[in-house]
Amino acid sequence: MPHAHLPAPIALHQQHQLSTLVENRTVYTLEAFELNVFETHQTAHQVPLSMGNLVLTTMLRGRKVMHLAGQPAFDYLPGESVIVGENQTMVIDFPEADEAHPTQCLAVAIPTDTIRQTVDLLNEKHPRAEEHLPWHLDTTDHAHFQNTPELTGTLERLVQLSRDTGRVKDVLANFTIQEMLVRLMQTQARQLLFHNYRQHLTTHRFAHVVQYIKQHLTEQLTVEKLSELACMSKATFFRVFKRELGLTPVEYIIQERLAEAKRLLQNPLTTVADVCFRAGFNNTAYFQKLFKQYEGVTPGLYKKQCAGC
Fold first, then answer.
1. What average pLDDT does range 96-108 have in this prediction?
2. Which of 56, 62, 211, 299 is positioned for an S-S bond with 103, CB 3.0–4.6 A?
3. What is the third-level CATH fold of 200-308?
4. CA 222 to CA 234: how far, in whole Å?
5. CA-based nearest residue to 281, from 254, 242, 241
6. What's the pLDDT tens digit per position in 23-36?
7. Which residues contact 73 (CB under 8 A, 6 or more apart)?
8. Nearest-angstrom CA–CA distance, 37 and 35
9. Cα–Cα distance measured from residue 53 to residue 34, given in angstroms and rounded to the nearest whole number
10. Sheet of strand 103-110: strand arrangement
11. Domains of the chain: which residue ranges?
């Protein structure tokens, strides 16, 4: 039961306010992007939707089943996002939607020029650690993912700007959409390395770092050792790792240890203290504080919830 990173809720419409019960659309148009809020209040299947520009969609409520060309169908749940390529058609099922359980989804349509300018700027001013892997936005292999806190925060600001009546909102919106694109590319870079690092051991220096962390999770891990594996100075490694992946090496180690703790907590025979040390933490109070901060519940409550699943 992962802790979902959801943008702040958006008020639902009453059914009499809707022009349609299936994918009712509310549009906010700015110079830098178009924000759409879609609501569905009744069961429906095989509903096509195409928006022209590349679109970032983020689920807020309910469950959809998404069908994208060349991919198997998948459940689409709150706290997740999907990038839909330019002129690509989504086909959507709403197997559970009704008045009491509507679906709600954000869709941010981004002009091609905005994407190209942001990617070009990054590649020119802030190239990635591996020159053969330039910045780009993937609309195929890594297009469905769990939101990060940073991406969620950026989406919340986009929603706020869409409803703002201030005179400088379009200037702020341009900066914010660029930040969102960077967050998206960082999120995809995490997927590439954290989940498929073995495939990139010969082509990406950070893949060696990820492998070492996973293999030595319960040991003391230092930035000095990790930077040595990446063949970088300590300062350069720390800066480039965070720039490419959106989190520091220390934050990544914490997330890996918490993921291991969650796995161990599902065993009814383990105690919270035992899990703390087996996951690589050396202080139970610190472990409990971090777990609550990242997962939204204490380790003890998480364990009880797992027992009830």
1. 95
2. 62
3. Arc Repressor Mutant, subunit A (1.10.10)
4. 10
5. 254
6. 999 999 998 899 99
7. 65, 66, 67, 93
8. 7
9. 10
10. 24-29, 34-40, 103-110, 54-61, 80-84, 144-146
11. 1-196, 200-308
The pTM score is: 0.86
Residue closest to 295 by CA, chosen among 236, 255, 245: 255
Question: pLDDT tens, 60-72?
Answer: 999 999 999 888 9
CATH code of the domain made up of 1-196:
2.60.120.280
Query: What's the distance, CA 130 to chain centroid?
Result: 23
The overall average pLDDT reported for the chain is 92
Q: Please, are residues 131 and 41 in contact by the beta-carbon 8 Å criterion?
A: no
Please name every residue paired with 255 in a beta bridge, in sequence order, or none if there are none. none
Number of helical H runs and strand E runs in the chain: 10, 10
CA dihedral 163, 164, 165, 170 (to 10 degrees): -110
**How does pLDDT run across 110-145, given as a tens digit for each residue?**
999 999 999 999 999 999 999 888 999 988 877 899
Dihedral sign, Cα of residue 132, residue 135, residue 138, residue 142: positive
Q: Model confidence over 41-65: pLDDT tens digits?
A: 999 999 999 988 999 999 999 999 9
Q: How confident is the model at residue 3 (pLDDT cuts 50, 70, 90)?
A: very low
Tokens standing for residue 188:
């995809």
Q: How confident is the model at residue 164 (pLDDT cuts 50, 70, 90)?
A: confident
- CA distances to 20, 63, 203, 290 from 251, rounded to whole Å, are 44, 30, 24, 11
H/E stretch holding 211 reads helix 205-215
Residue 267 one-letter amino acid: N
The whole-angstrom separation of Cα 307 and Cα 309 is 6
Whole-number Å distance between alpha carbons of 35 and 26: 8
Taking alpha carbons only, the member of 35, 133, 138 closest to residue 85 is 138
